[in-house]
Design goal:
Length: 178
């Protein structure tokens, strides 16, 4: 498995918290959790399954959470000096912030609650892990491709029908001249 792009999930969480503070915004704990999840998934989707950070996500009633960050940040950002984030990762995080940072937490929750991976995990129960391989599959679109492959039309007798794709070449008709 490829290495993570940053050493600690704490550094990413502090980055989002600082970004909100710089914009005179309060970053709700739930919103921080969703931003971490979206950042992990989007990064994996853009980077061939590579992890942005060493994080696991579990399902909660409202969306995915990273339980260690949840506990660490439950009383506000910790007084920890973060490690420097590489410029390319910081640019990536700016993109996540620009895309989702202005949305209310409830909106982001509703969007994520419609993700197939969240739906499948919550069916198993609260605190069920959302496996990274499933996150990669969802954010790369591989889950849709697999689903489409499984959606075969069957005849009454159970045979699979294949899609007919006409060829570009015309075939010659037999002549009636005998």
């Amino acid at each position: 498995m490829p290495s993570t792009a940053v050493l600690s999930t704490i550094d990413i969480a502090i980055w989002f918290s600082e970004k909100a503070r710089q914009e005179d915004d309060y970053l709700q704990p739930q919103k921080l959790q969703r931003l971490l999840y979206l950042a992990q998934g989007t990064f994996a989707g853009l980077n061939f399954g590579r992890k942005l950070m060493p994080a696991i996500f579990i399902v909660d009633e409202t969306g995915p959470i990273e339980p260690n960050i949840y506990r660490l940040f439950e009383n506000g950002p910790p007084k920890i000096k973060p490690h420097k984030i590489p410029p390319e990762i910081e640019n990536f995080l700016y993109g996540i912030w620009r895309r989702y940072g202005h949305h209310p937490t409830e909106y982001i929750n509703q969007q994520i609650q419609h993700h197939n991976i969240y739906i499948n995990a919550i069916k198993k129960g609260i605190n069920e892990e959302i496996y990274f391989k499933d996150i990669v599959s969802f954010f790369t679109g591989q889950d849709k491709a697999a689903k489409n492959k499984k959606m075969m039309i069957k005849t009454k007798d159970g045979r699979n029908l294949a899609r007919w794709i006409p060829t570009a070449q015309a075939t010659a008709k037999p002549s009636n001249n005998g």
